[in-house]
Amino acid sequence: MKTVELLKENNFNFDDLKAVPEWNEEGMKIIDEMVIVSYLRKQLQEMMSNLVGIVRSNNRLKMALQKHAEIAAAVDEIYHYSILSPQLSELRNLTTVAHLIITQSMEMTQNKGAFYNKDLVQA
Questions:
Q1: What digits encode the pLDDT tens for the residues 7-55?
Q2: Are the CB atoms for 98 and 48 separated by under 8 Å?
Q3: Phi-psi region of 83 (alpha: psi -120 to 50; beta: other; left: phi over 0)
């Protein structure tokens, strides 16, 4: 386990960690309408289920990437003016994972394992 070995070495550059500025929430506000975060999460979940589910196609993946960009932009906008909450942090992570899944699915050239794109020719 490489991670455990690195932790035991304790050879971290603490000067770099000290250079990270403290969180400053000046000018930020608490999200007064969590319904927006819930709405965006539900949109992301539905989009992933409907367009990037078990059976995919190139057109669905392109459509998912476009829809993802809209959702991610809305999440980023909220993130930049809001005090961070667990729900917002989780939504931000979900948008990142969704982006990775979509882009990696677009790069796949063969059906393998749980991945199935009906536009790919079986070898």
A1: 788 877 777 777 777 766 776 677 777 889 999 999 999 999 999 988 8
A2: yes
A3: beta
